[in-house]
Design goal:
With about 160 residues, this protein is mainly alpha-helical. It folds into two domains: about 5-110, lambda repressor-like DNA-binding domains (434 Repressor (Amino-terminal Domain), Orthogonal Bundle); about 120-155, no CATH class. The protein contains nine helices and two strands, in the order ααααααααββα. A two-stranded antiparallel sheet has the order 1-2. A hairpin with a 5-residue loop joins strand 1 and strand 2 (about 140-145). Helix 1 (about 5-10) packs across helix 6 and helix 3 crosses helix 4. The chain is flat, with a radius of gyration of 22 Å.
């Protein structure tokens, strides 16, 4: 457990504080995530509303306000479809919640769409397959096993004119 996780666990030892923090986290993280996904795609609030089945710009604005916090499951599902991402709603122990909150990063806040994810996975697969090939003494690629040398991979990908 990290120092940050220990401090947060101690802070949440009081039940009232714990549920106040949980409520605040849900409201803030959903609002921040909605805004992050929208901005990452270069969409206006009105575009999100249209893609989410005809919500108004003012509705999206309210949902991006962390003070609002009145998301319904129906709204979350409509937004997930608009952004082509999954939505997970589940009960979890606080230690898992604390671990998740303290490890948040940009990828958590602005997940890519299913289509982008598939393109990314395809690109990684191609890179991995390329890394599994190595040149022999004649400059021909040979299949090999083991961990590829990332420096050699980068050298191979840099044009010789540089």
């Amino acid at each position: 457990m990290s120092d940050e996780q220990r401090e947060l666990t101690e802070y949440l030892s009081d039940k009232e504080t714990r549920y106040f923090y949980l409520d605040s986290s849900i409201r803030h993280l959903l609002a921040l995530q909605l805004r992050s996904m929208r901005e990452a795609r270069g969409w206006e609030q009105s575009e999100v509303g249209e893609k989410a089945g005809g919500m108004t710009q003012s509705t999206i604005s309210r949902l991006e306000d962390p003070r609002y916090g009145k998301f319904t499951l129906s709204t979350l599902k409509r937004l997930a479809e608009a952004f082509d991402v999954a939505v997970i709603v589940r009960f979890t122990p606080f230690n898992e919640f604390i671990s998740w909150v303290t490890k948040l990063n940009e990828l958590h806040l602005s997940p890519v769409s299913f289509e982008e994810e598939q393109s990314y996975d395809y690109a990684l697969k191609q890179l991995f397959e390329e890394s599994q090939r190595k040149k022999d003494t004649k400059g021909n690629y040979q299949s090999h096993t083991g961990t590829p040398d990332p420096i050699e991979l980068l050298k191979d990908s840099v044009p010789s004119t540089l």
